[in-house]
Amino acid sequence: MQVTIKLPAPLRDCCGGMESIEVEARTIEAALAAASTQHPLLQRHLYTEAGALRPDVDILLNDDVVRDPQGATTLAPGDTIAIAPRGATGAAAPATARRTTSSTGATPDGARATEPAVHPSGLSQEEIIRYSRHITLPEVGWEGQRKLRAARILLVGAGGLGSPLGLYLAAAGVGTIGIVEFDDVDLTNLQRQVLYGVDDVGRPKLEAAMARIRALNPHVEVVPHPVRLTSENALEILAQYDLVVDGSDNFPTRYLVNDACVLLGKPFVYGAILRFEGQISVFGAKDGPCYRCLFREPPPPGLVPNCAEGGVLGVLPGIVGTHQALEAIKLILGVGEPLSGRLLLFDGLAMRWRELRLRKNPNCPACGERPSITKLIDYEVFCGLKPSSEMEDTIPEITPTELKARLDRGDRLQIIDVREPYEWEIANLGELGARLIPLRELPEFIGELDRESEIVLQCRSGGRSARALRQLREAGFHRLLNLKGGILAWADEVDPSLQKY
Ligand SMILES: [Zn+2]
């Protein structure tokens, strides 16, 4: 019966480059014998000189390891046998170095008396040795390494994602790396931002990142952009680069990068992380979808926690950032299958990858047939993080003393506490009928709230409750009050027995 034998990359050369071959066989042993009869070059990879199956050849049957490949397992039609790939050791330095040297001459070996200082490829001797493992790859080679050297890539952010991105893109020989970053290194960064060390704490990230990249690869030019990316500067900065890699950690920047890339016709490599999960894609590529094709509107503020609130396992940005680096390098080289039109989802706890197909949305406001976004907007306003200047943004307030007086006279007021449960544990107004709905969960509970009754929003000091008030107002509520100064002011003015924190 016919079965398929999948070949690992190193053995494909023995079979004319094919990834798999079909053979007729009833047992695994017979299938392997048939394979090496069809492709005699496989013989020495599969069998010892004595003709036995080599002990280092591992066989999988339909993805299960076969303990005894020469045993009596009978095959069923359509079975897939795989020869398990061995990870490369990367230790063949002397042989590769020799091969590289002998292949660098412009003229036949015999005619070359001395090694030229700069090879006709334009790469220096030092670069040829440095990138020899790349140059060996047919998908990179001289041409690819030259493309990498000519490439200009912009990193938006030099944090968790930007760290592996900066290191790997620099190591790979990307000629120009721009970095947009205005933050200083903080001790909390060191758990995941591998560009930085203890000595960098307190130093501008940009300065520390430039020093680290220069130490790794002096052939790379790092262009610093010590600013926050905004609608005013984004187009000018992004226009200087071939490709953008988004390592930002907030929605306004993500939408800004997307819209600017769509307007400029540049692709960008997207990555996002939270807790144990990550996402990667390529947006804005020719004929591919953009970030808004998938996420048309940002979530309400507070619904999706950031890494400071929600946490992130330190290795996650390493996993996602290295995938972004790989996609960026593939796009520069023009090899492989880019991640455009696919969203890769990683679940680190389950250790699983999933892939979603993404389509370009013909009605997308950014990249659709009749786009409504023809220039950059105010992304802080768009993401609900600050009020629009046109919109009246007076937050109606009530002081703790006023609230106490109104409750005492029997007014029906619903108090909603939008803090986190652990804060509620410390001190709360439960005795006054307050109800806990953390800000990020507010959208889920909007349907349960009474639009007609008067609602007082309360948090620790009044900031989050003002955000909650704006959300409810947008959802059509109008009898809303913000408790001025939050529960801390309540403790000061009304009930000193409350625990402050
Ligand atoms: Zn789009």
Heteromolecules bound: zinc ion
Distance between the termini: 74 Å
- If helices are DSSP runs of H or I spanning 4 or more residues, what is the number of helices? 20
Give the domain tally.
3
- Strand arrangement within the widest β-sheet reads 8-7-6-9-10-11-12-13
The average pLDDT is 89
User: Any idea what the radius of gyration is?
Assistant: 30 Å
Q: Which oligomeric state applies?
A: single chain
Shape: elongated
> How many strand elements?
18
Q: Could you name the CATH class of the largest domain? A: Alpha Beta
Largest sheet, described in full? Answer: 8 strands, mixed
Unreliable stretches: 92-116
Which architecture of the largest domain per CATH? 3-Layer(aba) Sandwich
Strand content: 15-25%
Q: Quick one: CATH superfamily of the largest domain?
A: NAD(P)-binding Rossmann-like Domain
Write the layout of secondary structure elements.
Layout: E1 2-6, H1 9-12, E2 20-24, H2 28-38, H3 43-46, E3 59-61, E4 64-65, E5 80-83, H4 93-102, H5 125-130, H6 132-135, H7 141-150, E6 152-156, H8 162-172, E7 176-180, H9 205-216, E8 221-225, H10 234-238, E9 243-246, H11 251-264, E10 268-274, E11 277-283, H12 291-294, H13 307-310, H14 316-333, E12 342-347, E13 352-357, H15 379-382, E14 397-398, H16 400-408, E15 413-417, H17 421-426, E16 435-436, H18 442-445, E17 454-458, H19 463-474, E18 480-483, H20 486-493
Parallel strand pairs: 1-5, 6-7, 6-9, 7-8, 9-10, 14-18, 15-16, 15-17, 17-18
Antiparallel strand pairs: 1-2, 3-4, 3-5, 10-11, 11-12, 12-13
Helix pairs in contact: 8-9, 8-14
The protein binds zinc ion.
